[in-house]
Write a structure and sequence with these properties.
The chain is built from 21 helices and 22 strands. It has four domains: 3-206, Histidine kinase-like ATPase, C-terminal domain (Heat Shock Protein 90, 2-Layer Sandwich); 239-339 and 346-365, Ribosomal Protein S5, domain 2, CATH 3.30.230.80; 404-493, Rossmann fold (3-Layer(aba) Sandwich); 506-625, Four Helix Bundle (Hemerythrin (Met), subunit A) (Up-down Bundle), CATH 1.20.120.790. The strands form five sheets. The protein has a nine-stranded mixed beta sheet with strand order 1-6-5-4-7-3-2-8-9, covered by helices on one side. The protein has a five-stranded mixed beta sheet with strand order 10-11-14-12-13, sandwiched between helices. Helix 13 (445-453) links the parallel strand 17 and strand 18. Helix 8 runs parallel beside helix 11 (393-399), helix 19 runs antiparallel to helix 20 and helix 20 (589-606) packs across helix 21. It is α+β, with helices and mostly antiparallel strands. Helix content is 36%, strand content 21%. The radius of gyration is 36 Å and the shape is elongated.
């Protein structure tokens, strides 16, 4: 019997829509067809397990093949198969889900939801690359007749008796002239590696050559020969589908190398496994983070029932964890009909929160279990933790217990530990606690030493994110502030009762200021005469804490307005220093100016700000003064 009919759709423009707009990339056709073959195979296995199918299952391997001369690509399965009526029902009525009906029928059976595909729109992705598509199918039903379906991409189809003799379905694509790039072995292998690498049913793509032992030669050494073997493209039971208790460290490391062959070993990993209130499995790895961490983003792969969907997971994974690597698999993440993009859904937010909590719990566990090991990894972990504390309030509350603060001596403290360490020394006369920090210990060494002389401690804040972290942290701390160690002289950073006063008279201070302004001759620098210890430097060059912080943030992304502003520095002249006394006692104006310029240049040199001709002049002047 032969029959012709019309596909049940509401517009004749459905195929142009499918070809141009529905799918983000035309290579998706192979993912959809292979996924449908997996669905059909899982259905027959499920029916056999339930006793609904009594026949032999046999080899259930799915085959993908191509014929360059005939310009065809074929996907063959030995799954549930279809009768002519089922083809008309599931294929011709676009978007009618055979999977949905199957799940409904067996909804009380365990694992009945293991059906990922929608036999409908997914199938029609074939017309993105094919002029004509054929289906040859033989149903698992006893006494079923084989059926053949053909469609040329219009709304018309032809269905007729087929000649298939084994249970299952063959989908044959006659590739159009615009898509002949897919008639290439390496191109098809690349697509299968991307989308089918971890599907739960074996996928065979032709054969490959392997070397096998072939006895020994006259010298007793092994001989090898090349043989053709099945090219199975996938691992059917990736580690995220297995119980963590059954896995060893080497299993996780091996899988990581499979995902990222050129990467260093990860620091550690988290195995995700939850089935309520949503289903989610996966493994997330903490990589060793480099300074150019932007290059390491988008390394988490999203799967749905082991079918690769995308590596754009910003809606599922919190922003601060986008630097992690690994795999997330969930059937509860809603996708649009092309399975390519995430849709807004409450489950996505729940999954996001769950991943945040799991990461926080893992970090807390590692910190408590072996602090020394945790400290040794802080250089890599710290970026994640600080980023998380900035972007997620819930993570901040957990993170403050395992976030570490490193000082310039290489010691590690939690926030509470550090507070207790510095509170007795670094509380100012206004009862406000001041945390001092350095961003470049080499350049800021003189300021750090000045702080250390007063038993003050200095934190090291030199990561790409620290300028933002400092700003966020200050907003969270009560009655405390953070000040960069070179933002002013140390006595001004933490003002104490009975601090040093400027011993110069107002007239002397004005004279000193005038001498320095003339020697510097640059309006970028504003001169201020102040009182400090005679043991401190005669002159310091600093930038206001607020402006310095804004510029640091601009340099590391954000606050671009401040980054464009010109640098303005404060020149602090220590009125109690012997050099200033010497300047005042000199009766030679040129000598006064030369001494002032020398002291100023020393301050610039200590900040790495003395360069070019000014540096050359300073060296020459230093020789003259010896």
């Amino acid at each position: 019997m032969q029959e012709k009919g019309t596909i049940s759709i509401h517009t004749e423009n459905i195929f142009p829509i499918i070809k141009k707009f529905l799918y983000s990339d035309n290579e998706i056709f192979l993912r959809e067809l292979v996924s449908n073959a997996v669905d059909a195979t899982q259905k027959i296995k499920r029916l056999a397990a339930l006793g609904e199918y009594k026949g032999e299952l046999g080899d259930l391997t799915i085959d993908v093949s191509f014929d360059k001369e005939k310009k065809t690509i074929t996907v063959s399965d030995k799954g549930i198969g279809m009768t002519a009526e089922e083809i008309k029902k599931y294929i011709n009525q676009i978007a009618f889900s055979g999977a949905s009906e199957f799940v409904e029928k067996f909804k009380d059976a365990k694992d009945a939801n293991e059906i990922i595909g929608k036999f409908g729109l997914g199938f029609y992705s074939a017309f993105m690359v094919a002029d004509t598509v054929e289906i040859h199918s033989l149903s698992r039903e006893e006494g079923a007749e084989p059926a053949k379906w053909v469609c040329d991409g219009s709304t018309e189809f032809e269905i007729s008796p087929g000649d298939k003799t084994e249970r299952g379905t063959d989908v044959i694509l006659h590739i159009n002239s615009e898509s002949e790039e897919f008639l290439d072995k390496w191109k098809l292998q690349e697509i299968l590696d991307k989308y089918a690498k971890f599907l739960p049913v074996p996928i065979r793509f032709e054969t490959k050559t392997e070397s096998v032992e072939d006895g020994v030669d006259d010298k007793g050494e092994k001989k090898w020969k090349s043989v053709e073997v099945d090219n199975i493209v996938n691992t059917t039971d990736p580690i995220w589908t297995q119980a963590p208790s059954e896995l060893k460290d080497e299993d996780y490391l091996k899988f990581y190398k499979e995902l990222y062959p050129m990467s260093e070993d990860p620091l550690f990993w988290i195995h995700l496994n939850v089935d309520y209130p949503f289903n989610l499995t996966g493994v997330l790895y903490f990589p060793k983070v480099k300074k150019d961490f932007e290059l390491q983003r988008n390394k988490i792969k999203l799967f749905s029932r082991q079918v690769f969907i995308t590596d754009e997971v910003k809606d599922i994974v919190p922003e601060f964890l986008m630097l992690l690597h690994g795999v997330i698999d969930s059937p509860d993440i809603p996708l649009n009909v092309s399975r390519s993009f995430l849709q807004a859904d409450s489950n996505v937010k729940k999954i996001n929160n769950y991943i945040t909590k799991k990461v926080a719990d893992k970090l807390g566990e590692l910190f408590k279990k072996d602090r020394k090991v945790y400290e040794s990894k802080w250089g890599d972990i710290g970026l994640f933790v600080k980023y998380g504390m900035i972007s997620e309030d819930k993570f901040y509350e957990k993170g403050k217990d395992f976030a570490l603060f490193t000082n310039t001596k290489g010691e590690y403290y939690t926030l509470e530990e550090y507070k207790e360490k510095v509170k007795p020394f670094q509380t100012g006369k206004d009862d406000k606690l001041v945390y001092l920090y350095a961003t470049d210990p080499d350049k800021q060494d003189s300021f750090i030493q000045s702080a250390n002389k007063k038993d003050y401690d200095v934190l090291l804040m030199d990561s790409p994110i620290d300028s933002h972290f400092i700003q966020h942290l200050e907003g969270k701390l009560e009655n405390a502030s953070l000040k960069r160690v070179d933002a002013d002289v140390v006595d001004k950073l933490i003002e104490k009762e009975g601090g040093y006063e400027n011993l110069l008279t107002e007239e002397q201070s004005n004279k000193v200021k005038e001498i320095f302004e003339k020697a510097i001759d640059n309006k970028t620098y504003s001169v201020e005469v102040q009182g400090s210890s005679p043991e401190e430097l005669p002159v310091t060059v600093t930038m206001d804490e607020f402006m310095r912080r804004m510029k640091d943030m601009a340099q590391n992304g954000g606050m671009g307005f401040y980054g464009a502003m010109p640098d303005n520095y404060k020149v602090g002249v220590n009125g109690n220093h012997p050099v200033v006394d010497r300047i005042l006692k000199s009766e030679d104006a040129a000598e006064q100016e030369r001494l002032a310029k020398q002291a100023f240049d020393l301050a610039l040199l200590s900040q790495g700000l003395l360069k070019g001709k000014e540096l050359t002049a300073f060296v020459k002047r230093s020789v003259e003064l010896i």
